[in-house]
Design brief:
There is one protein chain. The protein is an alpha/beta fold and about 240 residues long. Helices cover about 45% and strands about 15% of the residues. The protein contains ten helices and seven strands. Helix 3 links the parallel strand 3 and strand 4. Helix 9 runs antiparallel to helix 10.
């Protein structure tokens, strides 16, 4: 007898695509609805699902529920790390979802950050062994700000680095991969002592030359801001 899907996923973006793939790797039956791929209403298409995951953008969550209020009769879950919605469990995957789908091991190793006041992770996903940690809902925005700064902001810096390697210096980007890998390794092994270079040395002369070389580049202000945040009185 075919098993009735317990989980329904609303959304067609990366988070929805990755989580659907995770469930498939575990042979957990589920249904996925998106505006692009389904003409039927989400209420009708996901009617057999006891748990519905709202894997859409943060700004679309509450408007979507206003348009589809009967979904609130189900156990609802969203993956936003920044917002709290009454009656919807917030489970944020501490992970970045790229264009490539991941292996089962990669999905199983990702942690979830849940709302302290909400439904426990294991009650919604008893089939998943992912580690999870609870924080107060009023701290979610700060937690998410740290995620964005550490992940997205560093990505912007690396995109700038690789782009200039290739376009300005005619150096293939792969030449910088070992540098990136070692920075990652240093952070994993000893995050408190991973900083290197002129900021770590307190090398005012080099820092000044670096900043001057970025004249006319918006990243000049970013370099200066990082020196100021590092807080060693170098400027």
């Amino acid at each position: 007898m075919r098993q009735v899907p317990k989980y329904g996923i609303i959304g067609g973006g990366r988070a929805a695509r990755h989580f659907s793939h995770y469930l498939k790797l575990l042979n957990i039956p589920h249904l996925q609805w998106s505006r692009k791929n389904n003409s039927e209403s989400p209420e009708s298409y996901l009617s057999v699902c006891a748990v519905v995951l709202l894997l859409i953008s943060d700004s679309a969550l509450e408007p979507f529920l206003e348009i589809h209020p009967t979904l609130r009769k189900k156990m609802l879950v969203h993956f936003s790390g920044a917002i709290f919605i009454e009656g919807v469990a917030g489970f944020h995957p501490l992970m970045t979802f790229g264009p490539r789908l991941y292996s089962l091991k990669e999905y199983q190793e990702m942690s979830f950050v849940v709302e302290e006041e909400g439904v426990p992770f294991y009650k919604i996903f008893p089939e998943l062994d992912n580690p999870y940690y609870a924080i107060p809902k009023e701290l979610k925005s700060r937690y998410h700000a740290l995620c964005v700064m550490s992940g997205n902001f560093t990505t912007i810096l690396w995109q700038k680095f690789f782009s200039e390697l290739e376009t300005r210096f005619k150096i293939p980007r792969k030449a910088g991969f070992s540098y990136l890998k070692q920075i990652y390794q240093n952070l994993v092994e000893n995050p408190g002592d991973a900083l290197t270079g002129p900021l770590a040395r307190g090398d005012y002369a080099t820092i000044t030359r670096n900043i001057n070389s970025l004249e006319g580049d918006p990243f000049q202000n970013l370099y200066r801001a990082f020196v100021e945040v590092h807080g060693k009185g170098l400027l």
